[in-house]
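seq:
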Amino acid sequence: MGTALVTVISRTHPQQMNQMPYPGPTTLFHVRISGLFFLLWATNIVMLAFAAESIITNGVGVIILFASEVGGIKLVITMQTYAIQYSILLASLINSKAKYILSTIEFHRAATRGGENAPAWEDKSMYIFYVDLITGAFARPFYADAI
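struct:
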């Protein structure tokens, strides 16, 4: 749950970066967002490896972390669910990092082509579309397994 919240934060920062005027974000912003991306990436990889190892050694079974009967429905969470969740979070993180890189490239292009008066980067929207398409195609099988 904590990783999911921090992943939401990592999505909002590159979107805020797109709203900044020409000089763009400061070096401290880049250091913080790069550190956040690395921390999220490392956490996701470790937790995904832990979930995969648990599935391989114990098989696909049920681990009841929280069971509560509300209207006759029991909430049961398995390790397979965690593996799917961390795979989806990893796809989301890759998407956010790619959009951050595209925004950084846009600021660099503006700096080399006249600063505030630089022409807009027309192809950026096409690249964002392809990033969304590729990461969506990567995450789609995991959404199908989660159902």
